[in-house]
Amino acid sequence: MIGDMAKVKRQNQRWIRFQKNRQLLILTLPAILYLLIFHYVPIGGLVLAFKNYRYDLGIWGSEWVGLQNFKFVFSSAVGRILRNTVIYNLTFLVLATIINTTIALLMNELRNKTAIKIYQTSMFFPYFLSWVVVAFIVYAFLSPGYGWVNQILKAVGLEPKQWYSDASVWPGILIFTYNWKGMGYGIILNYAVLVGIDSEYYDAARVDGAGRWKMALHISIPHLIPVTLIQFILGIGGIFGGDFGLFYQVPRNSALLRPTTEVMNTYIFRSLMDSNEIGRSTAAGFLLGILSVIVVLATNKIVKSIDEDYSLF
Amino acid sequence: MSRKRHNLYRIPIHLFFIILSCSFLIPLLMLLSISFTEEASIYEYGYRLFPRSLSTIAYEFVFRNPQQMVNAYGVTIYITLVGTFLSVLLMLMCAYSLSRKCFAYRKFVSGYLFFTMLFGGGLVPSYILTTQVLHLQDTLLVFILSGLVSAWNIFILRTLISNIPEAIIESAYIDGASEYRIFFSLVIPLSKPGIATIGLFCMVARWNEWMTALLYISKQELYPLQYLLQKILMNLETITNNMNSLPASVLNDFKVPSESVRMAMAVVAIGPMLLVIPFFQRYFVRGLVIGSVKG
C-alpha cells in the first residue's frame, strides 16, 4: 500500500514537473525533432554498412552481408587514403597552431588601431569565400595556359608546368591554400584573446623590468594555451575526414591528381555518387565516425588529466 | 627619445603585415582584373594583374544572358533569407530554454545536442534518407533543411543570451506572461547582438552553399550561385552551351569571352559577401571567441 502511494506520488511529481516545464520544452521541440530526423535517424541508417543495399529492395529488404563491407574497406586502397588524410590534417593543425599564435603575438605588439583593423579585414575575408571561389583563385595562378605561376616561370626562362596533371606538387598547394583561407580566422581569434588580457599583468611585469620577449613568454603565451588546446581538440575530431571543399574543389575534381588529393571524405563521396557502392561507403563512414569519437575522447581525457580547465568537456 | 626607439621596432612588424595583407588582397584583385581584361589580351599575355587592355565585355555577357545567372541568384537569395530566418528562430528558441536555470530538462537537452557534435551517421545514410525515404532531391526544401539546426550554434547562442538578467524574465513571469510571450516580446529584442552574430554565420554558410546541390540537385533551374560557378570552373562548356540559347544576332556580335566571363561570374558571386564583411566583422569575432572558449 505504502509502496503504491509513493509510486503515485512520484508520478504526480513528475507530471507537475512536466507541466511546469511544458512551455520551455515545446520551445526546444523543433530543434530536437530536426536533429532526431536528420541526425539520429541516419545513425540508425548505419545498418547499411552490414548490408548489400539495393535501391529496389530498400533498407529492410536488402540482404545482410555481415562484415563483408568492412573487409573490403580494410583490404582496398582505403588504408593509404586514410593515412594521407591523417597526414594532411595533422600538418594543417600543427602549422595553423604555429602560424596563428606567432602572427597574433606580432599583431599584439602593434598599437595603431586603424592599421590593425585593415590588416584584420584583409586577412579575414578569405574565410568568407566558398571553396568554389578559392578554387577559381587557385586556377588563376595555376592555369596551364594563362596562369600567373607559369607566366613567371616563362619570364625567368623555366619550363611552364602542367599543374593540374602533376599529382606530386599538390600536397604543397593544398597545405598552402588551406592556410591561406583559414589563417585570418585563427589569427583574429588568438588576437582577441590577447587583447582581453588584463593590462595589470603587463604593468606589473614592466615594473619588475621584464622586456617584450619575457612578457610574451610568461604572460601572452600562457593565456593562449586554453584557446589553442580547445581548437586542437575540436580540430582533431575531423582528422580522419578532411575538408571536403578543399580536396574536391581546389584540384577541380581531377582524376589525375587523385593519388595525392584523395582523402576519406572525397573517397566516400565518390564511392557513393560515382560507383554507387552504398554498403562500402557507409562502412567507411562508420569507421571514420568511430575513429573520430575515440580520438576526441582520448585527447580530451589527456588534456583534462594535465589541467581540468583546459578540456572541452 | 626612448619613446621613439620604442616605436621604431614596430616598423618591420608593420612591413610584415602589409606584405601579408597583400598576399590576401592581390589574388582577389587578380580575379577582378582578369574579369575586366579583353579576351584577346588574355590569349596573348595570359592572366595579368594590370591588364593591357580593359574591357567590360565579360560583364555585358553575364548580364546580357541573364537567365542562368538570375536564376542562380534567385535560388541563393531565397535559401539565404529563408534558411537563415528559420535557423536562427529554431536555434534561438532552443537556446533560450537552455539558458533558463529553472528548466528541468536542461541537462537532458544539452546532452542530446552535444551528442550530435560527437558522432553522426555520416554522408551515406543521410543521402539515402533524403533521396529514398523523404524524396527531397530536386526541391528547394532540401536546401532549407540541410544544416538547419546546429548544436554548436545553439550553445554559442545560449552563452550569448545568458547575460539577459534573470530578474527581468522572472518579473515578466510573475506578471503572468507565458514563456512564449516572454520569448517573443522580451528575449528576441534583448538578444539582437546574438541574433546578428549567429545570423551572419548562417548567412555566410547559406550563401556559400554548393554541397547540397552537388548531392541532391540535377535540375539546372535549381542551381545556386556557387554550384553554377563550380560547374563553370570544372568545364567551360557550361558557358558555351548556354550561348546556344542566345539569339543569333547576339552570337554574331562577339565570340564567347569564356576566360574573362568565368572570372566575371566569380566576382559577381563574391560581391555581396565582400560588402557585408567589413560592417559585421566585430559580430563575427565575438561569435568566434565565444565558440572557442569553454562555455
Summarize the structure in words.
- The complex is a heterodimer of chains A (313) and B (295).
- By secondary structure, chain A is mainly α.
- Chain A folds into two domains: 2-64, no CATH class; 68-310, MetI-like fold (Orthogonal Bundle).
- Chain A contains 14 helices and two strands, in the order H-E-H-E-H-H-H-H-H-H-H-H-H-H-H-H.
- In chain A, helix 5 (113-124) runs antiparallel to helix 8.
- The longest helix of chain A has 43 residues, at 2-44.
- By secondary structure, chain B is mostly helical.
- Chain B has a domain at 66-245: MetI-like fold (Orthogonal Bundle), CATH 1.10.3720.
- The interface between A and B is large, with 100 and 93 residues.
Helix/strand/pairing category of chain B: mainly alpha
Describe the main β-sheet of chain B briefly: none
Work out the radius of gyration of chain A: 26 Å
CATH architecture of the domain at 66-245 in chain B: Orthogonal Bundle
Q: In CATH, what is the homologous superfamily of the domain at 66-245 in chain B?
A: MetI-like
* Main sheet summary of chain A: 2 strands, antiparallel
Instruction: Find the count of extended strands of chain B (DSSP E, 2+ residues).
Output: 0
User: What is the fold named in CATH at topology level of the largest domain in chain A?
Assistant: MetI-like fold
